[in-house]
Amino acid sequence: MRIDIVTCQPELLTSPFAYSIVKRAQEKGLAELHVHDLRRYAINKHGQIDDYVFGGGAGMVLRVEPIAACFDELMAQRSYDAIIYLTPDGETLRQPLVNRLSLGENLLLLCGHYKGVDERIRQAYITHEVSIGDYVLSGGELGAAVLVDAVVRLLPGVLGNEESALSDSFQDNLLAPPVYTRPAEWRGHSVPDILLSGNTPRVEEWRHEQALARTQQRRPDLLN
Asked: Would the keyword Coiled coil turn up in this protein's UniProt record (predicted)?
């Protein structure tokens, strides 16, 4: 999978992609991540990429020309399965959307900044508008990092055990059940006997029961 990310602050994405699972995915050749500095497409020698809001009001808006120039250049080289704008007023990022995006070959992400992007970019290019929650960040870079991590870990071969991703929270509209490791006894707290029994069908039944109970308690909306 190839993921292109367009941003006016590329430095913010250096660290998230340089460690852990996303790094290993790149090293294995399973994911290509390319970050594009929007200022390379500035409208003048001063590096301008934004302007004042028509109609008045506070804040600045990313202009159409730099984004269009960058998008046109990238889209001339390949087709994209999704062109995604990270924005607070987008669809909330949930596991089903992540699953669908992970099936694509090429994704193009646009990070919002300031007051956002000129609406005409959204109308002309964007196929998906995605939010990582009901709050506002300084830009879309952290949202892009979240989306990339969620998608890349689902690519075949990225995780050491591919079944691990299938048992994550939200894959079946349930939160994940409690997990334990050694030691079996710690400060008077014991691992449930069923997990030490070796009875795999009964263990799976217990896990499902625990996942259902945890979901009912913490996220009943997932069961509706």
From this structure: no
pLDDT band at 114 (very low <50, low <70, confident <90, very high): confident
Is 179 annotated as contributing to ligand binding?
no
Q: Is residue 165 part of a domain?
A: no
Task: State which residues form the domain around 145.
Answer: 2-152
161, pLDDT greater than 90? no
Q: Is 135 annotated as a binding residue?
A: yes
| Residue 160 falls inside a structural domain | no
149 marked ligand binding residue: no
Q: Is residue 94 part of a domain?
A: yes
134 has binding-site annotation: yes
- 112: annotated binding-site residue? yes
Q: Which of 101, 123, 152 is a domain's end point?
A: 152
pTM of the model: 0.88
Using the predicted structure, report yes or no on whether residue 75 has a pLDDT greater than 90: yes
Closest CA to 7 of 53, 76, 70: 70
Distance CA 118, CA 50 (A): 9
Name the pairing type of β-strands 60-62 and 50-52.
antiparallel
Strand partners, 85: 110, 129
Q: Is the dihedral of CA 87, 41, 29, 80 positive or negative?
A: positive
The span from the CA of 63 to the CA of 194, in Å, is 60
Report the phi/psi class of residue 124: left, alpha or beta, with left for phi > 0 and alpha for psi in -120 to 50.
alpha
In the structure, what pLDDT confidence band is assigned to residue 165 with cuts at 50, 70 and 90? low
